[in-house]
Amino acid sequence: MNQRIFLSPPHMGGNELTYIHEAFESNYIAPLGHNVDAFEAQIKAYTGAKYALAVTSGTAAIHLALRVLGIKEGDEVMASTFTFIGSVVPILYERCTPFFIDSDTASWNLDPNLLEEELSQRASQGKKQPKALIVTHLYGQCADIKRLSAICEHYGVYLIEDAAESLGAGFEGKQTGTFGKMGIYSFNGNKIITTSGGGMLVSDDETLIAHARHLSTQARDNAPHYEHTEYGYNYRMSNIIAGIGRGQMEVLSERIERRREIFDLYHKALCEIEGISFMPELEGSIGNRWLTTLLLPQHISPESLRLTLEAENIESRPLWKPMHAQPLFQGAQGRLNGLSDTLFKRGICLPSGSSLTDNDVERIVSLVKQAIERN
Ligand SMILES: Cc1ncc(COP(=O)(O)O)c(C=O)c1O
């Protein structure tokens, strides 16, 4: 059996262990220390965000964003329907009401027209507006973030950017995660860089990040004993994990370059096939191409291709099942146009890890071609 090809495996740079050793040498085997500070500083320098907070996961970062923005039980939060559960489950943690917005064909991400229609209709009818919008930059590709940001500003809605998958992607030279009031990144094991698990909350608002920092360490007040006036969480990133993050940040640009090359290889080999289309890159943006994703011709189902690849020990995956179609969100409201349902039915993610060789890609391409011809 050939060695397994994973969808997006971790790809270490080389210096991660050095920084882990530093943590051991300093004995900061704790959720604080030099690696945590240095990793936050690297993220700020790279993204241009003024403040950053390293936490245990991207989901935790979104949860903290909702808390510090004062979003409370009963409030409504709008979100991309075409996303991963981690993006929206904090809405449930806070007992808020989700409202899902569908995608557009130009980006496969949240459709600004649908958002504007919904908010302007509510305004003209004197209805309540949502407190926040969580926008995902899916698969490392930018949403129409400048327009979404302007719409949110116009209607007084907080914009939270879920850049879990899109670290390094930018729109007109500005990094995803830095357009909104708050942004988040994930360093889960499958992301473009990883710390095994981890996340980062960023903002240009010092007070918000200071509050999130307080909440992430059990909301302990300033006293020699343990004093608490509000409840928090145990969400702070470990100094060991942050050591991995430091090493990974050193190779982030190379990782993006390779992912984009892998996309180009797939695209060149498959784009001529009738019925195939790749996730677009919105004009003015540069994605990190975290995963290469494409729609298949009508006559072949993503599941049959997935099984064909699996038989060769190659991992692939359907596109995210939209949130409005999840049993968990049955009955949730939304403004939908059917696109995310189609993307889910017809789309597949191909192996895209930065350690993939050109030969691996060629092998996968020929299996895809054979499967399409056979069906
Ligand atoms: C779009 C999106 N949002 C949120 C998350 C949550 O991040 P984490 O797994 O670090 O909690 C992920 C990834 O896992 C994601 O892909």
TrEMBL record:
One Pfam family named in its UniProt record: DegT_DnrJ_EryC1
Keyword terms: Aminotransferase, Pyridoxal phosphate, Transferase
Modified-residue entries (N6-(pyridoxal phosphate)lysine), positions: K191
InterPro entries (UniProt xref): DegT/StrS_aminotransferase, PyrdxlP-dep_Trfase, PyrdxlP-dep_Trfase_major, PyrdxlP-dep_Trfase_small
Keyword field contains Cell membrane: no
Domain of life where this protein originates: Bacteria
Active-site residues, Swiss-Prot/TrEMBL: K191
Keyword check for Iron-sulfur: no
CDD domains: AHBA_syn (cd00616)
GO biological processes: polysaccharide biosynthetic process
Entry's Gene Ontology molecular function annotations: pyridoxal phosphate binding; transaminase activity
Family listed: Belongs to the DegT/DnrJ/EryC1 family.
Protein's name according to its UniProt entry: DegT/DnrJ/EryC1/StrS aminotransferase
Source organism of the structure: Sulfuricurvum kujiense (strain ATCC BAA-921 / DSM 16994 / JCM 11577 / YK-1)
